[in-house]
Design goal:
By secondary structure, the chain is α/β, with parallel strands linked by helices. The chain has one domain: SGNH hydrolase (Rossmann fold, 3-Layer(aba) Sandwich), CATH 3.40.50. Helix content is 39%, strand content 16%. β1 and β2 form a beta hairpin. It starts with 5 loop residues before the first strand and ends with a helix.
Amino acid sequence: MRAIGFTIIWAGLWVGEIQAVDTIVAFGDSTTAARGKLRVYAGCLAGELKKRGRSVRVINAGVGGHHTDMARRRFQKDVLAREPDVVVIQFGINDAAVDVWKNPPATKPRVSLKSYETNLLHFVKTLKARGTRVILMTPNPMRWTPRLRQLYGKPPYLVDDSDGFNVLLEKYAAIVRRIGQGQKVPVADVYAAFQVHGKLAGQSMDDLLLDGMHPNNRGQKIVCDLLLKQLASPK
């Protein structure tokens, strides 16, 4: 938790003032997790806040392949036990995934929209009850690549549509916005920001992705900038 600033006097000598320290936990899946030399948004956030004179510890609690059912099982250990001041939550890509590559093919998302909403509400309400600041993030949209077409190029996905890998994911993003509004917590709308980028002349969402799914350095910087704006705004 945030340390309260106070002056230490030891043996009659002034030692100095302990500055308030924020602990921020980035709670998410592989789009949050560390990825080689990529500067993921958690690292970017720590660096940018330091430049602004903020003494901040950013803990990356992203785990590749995780959806909100899995995240709920590690919520106590990876989030609550860290006693954070701020928690950034981003899930959805794995929740919305329909594993059509399996034999037989899956026909439903790994986590239903209802369960996704229930899980996110559990995270938000638990943190709010502890006085922890929450920032929700929508998942980033995805783009087709040859590899992703090979794995997921079946209904319900639309292979001939450039946005066809997001037919379900956009509904999960909408849930995040709805929870943000209902719970009065800020939402960093990564999904919308990536879409806006892709609609500008001479640009594409491909500019922001490593492999059609995970944000590259440019994409991570957009995420970081969105969070910086939220952190700079009143609670």
